[in-house]
Design goal:
Length: 238
Amino acid sequence: AGSLASTGDQLYGGPVTVTAMAPISLSAPLARIEALHAGNQWGTQPLSVVADELLLGAGRAGAAADGAWNNLTLGQVTLGRLADDGAGVGAGVGVGVGASQIDAGKLQIGAPVAAGAAATGDPRFDGELSLRAGSLALRAHAQPVFQVPVPAQGEVPAVDPLGGREIALSNDALWQNPHSRVHTEAGASLQLQASAGASIRFDQAANLFDGAVSALSGDSFNTAWTADDVPGGRQAGQ
């Protein structure tokens, strides 16, 4: 159904197009997977990956180098190898040092879930991200969409202290869906970025962050907060 497995590297120099109506997987547990072509189209089903190191792009509109990024849904993703994968050192010790990166417009872990729906029990659908060693950067580049939240009864709208405008909150560009799980091993590093200033939401109770985690809404760390100008000029985006 389109899934591929190898003992060595998987390097895709041209565009990858997925038309399968069921989830597919790329597997190279001890090696590197690289698929960065602007013409990539990973389809509508969750994409699962097992690799020591992963460099993956969701592709861009019109396959143009400066086109808007396509959206991407991740299924079961396992990155970085442990010693018991055959590296010849103590079992359970992280030995992968790869710097993995995934770029997309909107990026979600797990397939969308209808309100109140139960988990499928299949991590390819429910979503499971396991970072066992090395680092992983999840980068969502979609532009934010702002909306002023409705205040609770008796409260007033939040106001930008610098300009006196109502604060509008951005939508999520990088998030996990209900029933998904994220686990980072000690020594691993997970970086989350919504480069255009949209929101990031990793809020499931099953998450376990034993490794370092950093999150950035914007294009760079160590910059002062500034409000985004919402069209119309009457609200400040955050």
